[in-house]
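Data deposition worksheet. Section B asks for the primary sequence of the deposited chain exactly as it was used as input, without tags or linkers unless they were present during the calculation. Section C holds the resulting structure in token form. Section D is free text for depositor observations; keep each observation to a single sentence. Incomplete worksheets are returned to the depositor.
Section A, Depositor: J.P.
Section B:
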Amino acid sequence: MAEYKTIMIGDFVDSKEGERFDLSSTLRLRARSIDQKRLWASKDRSAEFMGDIWSLFVDSEKEERIRTVLHSVCVELIENSVKYGCQDYDYIITTDLCLKRDELLVYVANKSDPSQIPALETAAHLILNTDNIRTLFKQKMKEAKAAKKQGRNMSQLGYIRIVMQNVSLAWQIEMGAEATVVTTLAKIPLAEKDA
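Section C:
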């Protein structure tokens, strides 16, 4: 019988530890209740909706940036949840948005196939440990093109696109006897970085 194990990658802030948020909202998508083609379309609409709503809660100077970045982050994370989720089971993709002082925290959680976890860990550490995210992006673009020529799909560009927008990523992987739950955290800063 497998043991329960939790793996943390990056600076993960657990949303369940009683953190006081100024505002929060949750969106749940039941993966099996929508056919796959409609789910792919709905993730974009869901992300757009969240971007539009949440941009109203930041000051007007940041509204457009937050709408754009939040939409992009949610699209990538929901897409990964669909792509790497447990295809043979009914599962919920949960997206929690939490406003905390000067940052917006986006949590996307889903059940994942345990065989996907080593690749996720490798990709996460590669992104977190890179000195130049743009160079990594170019390298992964070349690898994706080469893989496509061989009939394989392995871009790994979604997380890199997120980080290129000045967003921090972290992961919590909860491995149990019956399921593996992956929670990806994207931290979107609301304060501008010093130039």
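Section D:
The domain at 5-189 is CATH 3.30.565.10 (Heat Shock Protein 90).
The longest strand covers residues 103-112.
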